[in-house]
Amino acid sequence: MKSKATREDIIFDTINYTLLIILMIVTLYPFLNTIAVSLNDSVDSIRGGIHIWPRKFTTINYSIILKNQAIYHAAFISSARAIIGALLNVTCSLVVGYALSRQEFVLRKLYSRIFVFSMYISAGLIPSYFLIMDLHLRNNFLVYILPGVVSAFNIMVVRSYIAGLPPSLIESAKIDGASELKIIFSIVMPLSVPVLATVILFVSVGQWNSWFDTMLYCSNANLSTLQFELQKVLQSSLALASTQSGQLAALKGANGAAAVTPNSLRAAMTIVAILPILAVYPYLQKYFVKGLTLGGVKG
Amino acid sequence: MERPEADMKITKPLSYKPKKSFSKRLGEQKELIIITLPFLLLLLLFSYVPLWGWVMAFQNYKPALGVQHSDWVGLKNFAELFKDKDFYLSIRNTLGISTLKFVTGFTGSIGLAVLINEVRNARFKKAVQTISYLPHFVSWVVAASIVTSVLSPDDGIVNQILISLHFIKDPIAFMGIPGLFWGILAGSDLWKEIGWGTIIYLAAMTAIDSELYEAASIDGAGRIRKIFAITLPSIIPTIKILMILNVGWLLTANFEQVYLLKNSMVMDVAQTLEIYVYNLGIPLGRYSFATTAGIFTSVVSLILVLSCNRLSKLLDGESAF
């Protein structure tokens, strides 16, 4: 409905658009700046003044990062846990969500209470730590996977969605004698793609971004994750940033020619850590608002 | 007399209740139970079994002796906890940080949602939303890295701007200043989550009947008037629910964020309850004591959530459930 724009409208819109543009700049600038620093020659970066464009372009920061075996391997571990963790979690959410959506499921109330209550009470860091130790999951890849398979929240979201599907589809399949598994995977799953895609994306992002479990449970370098490697680099930079101005002495490359500062390497590592997020971002956009509001607001 | 099958709910006589016994129904729904069982077991294992660990709080736990053989000390750990100055410091920090984030978070997200909602141009709206959601998806390691760079005294943008505007002469190491730390936490949290926080408000706003706005226009209301008279009141239920849920988490102050951004200069203001527990437990190995503090946090949080929910139910019949 296009009515004539009053003077208040124009002033309001101008201020509004200005504020929003400032917001977008403030949001994006750090990312662009990090990209610029990562693509900029280290010694040149120290002079300051790099904003969103590299002044002295170089890819050496990235080649150092990517040639580093530890980081390469960490990226592999992060990817593995993202994929495996997401697949297991979404399977759990689908199966349990389906079961809980069936009104006639005999254990429905009991299960619901058990799952919901687990969202409110947390045993705490120390008891969980001891559990992992007792299960001999320290320095075991499974420590990244098993605790995260069941997410009560995701189950509830999927359950809401399935409950909204036409019951006749499932009823008729039951009359035809289909097993529950067949119903879940041939009928319910294809119809639930939006919510399942949302769960997969969110769990993947969560897994990719994890670092604290690495710190607690995996001293073995073989199980290091990308975020944890980045965190190690960050901690050493942070020690400096809070006390004095001044970069660490530039590290000389093997042939003495290339000098690379930790700051530049950190920038490059940060970008490597964000890249998969950026890559799936369009898909996140497509599914999440739909999936989230369907499961959450409708509840 | 025919007994209709209990699970043929399509045609069921109104007065008849299926009299299938519990165990019979269990048998019939065997498949469902079997396929959900592994997940139930995993949940019990990782969410409920650790609760047994709470007995460590009543012991003088030594890992070598295990739970079976460590001495029992009753409530001594709790008494010690309530005498610990560090404990009260942690509570102060946690509440201070959470309250600040509560205020900035809600104001920010609600305000931004209102602004976005007022945008007529669909493409601009989409662009703003897309960009504002992005920080939510990066890890706190990345976010902390970004915050450190931005506030860096060497070449951080904040210092550069302040110097070029002649507000300061020399760069300031912001992250080392205790008085600013809570603000840095709230500000970086805002940068990361403000966009994401608008989703639920925007969803509520799109549900507002456009006739309300038209009627207001006819009555001569301007944009700002409409926002305060229509938009904001319509999302009050949403705001209430979110605030209630939020209060329950008042004792948790995003461990990852604080852990990553803290440094030795600001420890007095950075030590939250979670960090207090972590430090006691993992580096120091005072397991019993750490568990005690952890129990305190969990139980108080649970009480907070339940009471806030009851309070809201009393107030006007709406609840977070």
The gist of it:
The complex is a heterodimer of chains A (299) and B (321). Chain A has 13 helices and two strands; from the N terminus they run ααααααααααααββα.
Question: Could you name the CATH homologous superfamily of chain A?
Answer: MetI-like
**What is the CATH class of one domain in chain B?**
Mainly Alpha
Q: What is the helical fraction of chain A, as a range of percent?
A: 55-70%
Number of domains of chain A: 1
What's the helix-strand series of chain A? HHHHHHHHHHHHEEH
Give the CATH H-level superfamily of one domain in chain B: MetI-like
Find the structural class of chain A using helix and strand composition: mainly alpha
Distance between the termini of chain B: 44 Å
Structural class of chain B: mainly alpha
Within the largest sheet of chain A, what's the order of strands? Answer: 1-2
Q: Number of helical runs of chain A?
A: 13
* Mean pLDDT figure of chain B: 86
Percent of residues of chain B in helical segments? Answer: 55-70%
Mean pLDDT of chain A: 84
Known CATH architecture of one domain in chain B? Orthogonal Bundle
Task: Provide a descriptive summary of the structure in words.
Chain A is mainly alpha-helical and 299 residues long. Chain A has one domain (64-295): MetI-like fold, CATH 1.10.3720. Chain A has 13 helices and 2 strands, in the order H-H-H-H-H-H-H-H-H-H-H-H-E-E-H. Chain A has helices spanning 7-38, 42-46, 60-67, 69-101, 108-118, 125-134, 152-163, 167-175, 180-191, 193-208, 212-217, 226-241, 262-295; strands at 251-252, 259-260. In chain A, a hairpin with a 6-residue loop joins strand 1 (251-252) and strand 2 (259-260). Chain A is globular. Chain B is mainly α and 321 residues long. Among the domains of chain B are: 1-42, no CATH class; 80-138 and 175-208 and 237-316, MetI-like fold (Orthogonal Bundle). Helices cover 68% and strands 1% of the residues of chain B. Chain B has helices spanning 22-28, 30-48, 66-69, 76-83, 85-117, 122-137, 140-150, 157-164, 178-206, 210-218, 223-234, 236-248, 255-261, 267-270, 273-281, 287-316, and strands at 59-60, 71-72. Chain B has a two-stranded antiparallel sheet with strand order 1-2. The relative contact order of chain B is 0.11. Chains A and B meet through helix 1, helix 4, helix 5, helix 6 and helix 12 of A and helix 1, helix 2, helix 5, helix 6 and helix 7 of B.
